[in-house]
Design goal:
The complex is a heterodimer of chains A (115) and B (114). Helices cover 0% and strands 56% of the residues of chain A. Chain A is built from no helices and 11 strands. In chain A, the strands form 2 sheets. In chain A, strands 2, 4, 5, 6, 9, 10 and 11 form a 7-stranded mixed sheet that branches. A 4-stranded antiparallel sheet of chain A has the order 1-3-8-7, with no helix packed on it. Helices cover 0% and strands 59% of the residues of chain B. Chain B is built from no helices and 11 strands. In chain B, β7 and β8 form a beta hairpin. The radius of gyration of chain B is 14 Å and the shape is globular. Chains A and B meet through β5, β9 and β10 of A and β4, β5 and β9 of B.
Chain lengths: 115, 114
């Protein structure tokens, strides 16, 4: 099973709403990632969790709040977003980071629209 | 700072043609290089992973090569089919990164015409 599952597939929210994106993998991977992708652009890294600890935060605004409850789950909590935050949010996982990384597997993404 | 470039940005070929997509990177100190395909509005599908100690990897009609010293990788697609139409992205994981950051190229948008 090389699957990363993301929910919801689509999300529309107002600027005052609070919502969450969820990601799950059962490959035994210990590194999980959040990426943001705008149309016609490559994915941009937001956060990396390694062994359930936040290891990289790419200077993401605090209105995005990641959470890794356990090694299989990754959440992204959204609050007070702006219309420019509308994008495809991708979750990914890998065996590890650095020399032991192996392949990176992506989910299908959550399409977020902020009104 | 690692930079990844993909040429061409877009490519249109007739069905059945063999084709090569190019990826270059500026810093040869990498752990690995990975090729992905992305269909419109979808996530990224991993095609091939090449470790820094490897020269090439093959999967079906796909063959990826890696020349670390020159900072280049190619993705060869044999006997292209309309179903191969997608954006192809290469990404490198550098040894100077903390926590395994992947650096992506801008992608090559491939269209295979029936």
């Amino acid at each position: 099973d090389t699957e990363v599952t993301q929910t919801p597939k689509h999300l529309v929210m107002g600027m005052t709403n609070k919502k969450s994106l969820k990601c799950e993998q059962h490959m035994g991977h210990r590194a999980m990632y959040w990426y943001k992708q705008k149309a016609k652009k490559p994915p941009e890294l937001m956060f990396v969790y390694s062994y359930e600890k936040l290891s990289i935060n790419e200077s993401v605004p605090s209105r995005f709040s990641p959470e890794c409850p356990n090694s299989s789950l990754l959440n992204l909590h959204l609050h007070a977003l702006q219309p420019e935050d509308s994008a495809l949010y991708l979750c990914a996982s890998s065996f590890g980071t650095g020399s032991g990384t192996g392949e990176l597997f992506f989910g299908e993404g959550s399409r977020l629209t902020v009104l | 700072k690692q930079e990844v470039t993909q040429i061409p940005a877009a490519l249109s070929v007739p069905e059945g043609e063999n084709l090569v997509l190019n990826c270059s990177f500026t810093d040869s100190a990498i752990y690995n290089l990975q090729w992905f395909r992305q269909d419109p509005g979808k996530g990224l599908t991993s095609l091939l992973l090449i470790q820094s100690s490897q020269r090439e990897q093959t999967s079906g009609r796909l063959n990826a090569s890696l020349d670390k010293s020159s900072g280049r990788s190619t993705l060869y697609i044999a006997a292209s089919q309309p179903g191969d139409s997608a954006t192809y992205l290469c990404a490198v994981r550098g040894r100077d990164n903390q926590g395994g950051k992947l650096i992506f190229g801008q992608g090559t948008e491939l269209s295979v015409k029936p």
